[in-house]
Amino acid sequence: MFTDIEIxxxxxxxxxxxIAEKAGIPQEDLEFYGNYKAKVDFRLLKKLQxxxxxxxxxxxxxxxxxxxxxxxxxxxxxADGLRKIGKDSIVALREPSLGPxxxxxxxxxxxxxxxxxxxxxxxxxxxGDFHAIGAANNLLAAMLDNHxxxxxxxxxxxxxxxWRRAVxxxxxxxxxxxDGLGGKANGVPREDGFDITVASEVMAVLCLAxxxxxxxxxxxxxxxxxxxxxxxxxxxxxxxxxxxxxxxxDALKPNLVxxxxxxxxxxHGGPFAxxxxxxxxxxxxxxxxxxxxxAVTEAGFGADLGAEKFLDIKCRMAGLxxxxxxxxxxxxxxxxxxxxxxxxxxxEDLEALEKGLPNLLQHVDNITNDFRLPCVVAINAxxxxxxxxxxxxxxxxxxxxxxxxxxxxxxxxxxxxxxLANEVVRLCEQKNDFTFAxxxxxxxxxxxxxxxxxxxxxxxxxxxxxxPKQLKQLENLGFSSLPICMAKTQYSFSDDPNKLxxxxxxxxSVRNLKVSAGAGFxxxxxxxxxxxxxxxKVPAAEKIDVDENGVITGLF
Length: 556
Fold this sequence. Notes:
12-stranded mixed β-sheet, 4-stranded mixed β-sheet, 25 strands, globular
């Protein structure tokens, strides 16, 4: 049994020029980062604007568990499977964050024989996009504090600063800090803190911006603080947007790589779905749709988070209309949702599976009835799955009018994704009545209620702490028309990570509301969600090493 990194390192990769040619990307629009990576000029989209869009396929999943679902693996394997049946497919994925790579979740390059390569580069520094985002974020923080130090002509209240510094690492020690100590020359003492880079609004802005002018306009709208009389202060008022955009000009360009089977893949941007909107860049998605007949993309974590935000935020802003949705599940993860012990997930347990199935079925119901999109359930196969368990899942899904396809892409690559690919092609030919979970003209509270009751199946929403006051402030500032980005645990439909399956009889508690004016949405923080994760007791970093020849080991 080979590890993911051993499989990836054994792969004979094609030169990136060949992959670009396969995708139809002209040589003059490429910037090479070695032999196997390239950036693609975002202005290529304008050249392709008259070309018909390909079909858009969204891959999502059940609520994640320690047993894993294999969403990225399935996304990559499906794109390879589509090529196996003669379809011109391109995949669009998020970039991995160093936090999970060195922490516990792992990277985001797929697994087994369904990976994007070079996986070591993609999972580590890649082309430097996240470093540029962190630098732009922290430049804005430095200019904000310097403005206060140099006389504070904007009348900023240091107690009402909302902009935090960022670092792409799980570092709980930096969640809450006091800075500016050491006397007058060293700044104004105040409470501060760090977010992980993928939670920075700069990340969201980059992933939604269409070009440099749009990027600068969005950056200028970012609210960083409030004055003593509660008026918002923006990055534009600090004159920071130009320098921030200069740092981000290359990061704005999508990264082109390949799957193990040579399918072109855009890997670009990476906001988390539990604390941000959870989708790769809009530019990468649009480029994949223009260059391929089938664009396969994914949204982070479960469908209640990533898919909801993909549909309600990204599709709303860009006028996108998905043609089909794939919901990934594993028998093992469903049994976990049904209460089976972690060490017993490989043993047939129809009772636990029956108890866990409502999690999958609720996601299916949301996609088909609330968003009105055709979907297929992809069972990511494990050797321990029994026929009785597979039959049970298929039977229950068909009761909702949804087919089930066994996905064996981890073990077989594209060959193992042919059944799923055929079903996806069939679904893409169906007309759909795609709709959003809420309308633009609804109030902020009504939008929160719509997401909570329709998607999470909660009884309602409670605004606690400062949230009621923040709600009134956002309404007074004219932000009511913006979509909602819910920051919620990924492990449950509720805001309690311990409520597995499809819980009922609960309410969602929103404790903080803030506007991401540059990204163009309102972030609602629920439960105990944190914007700076911590490392586990035994971090993955302990197993990662590099030898004298530069060969990396231990990276999954």
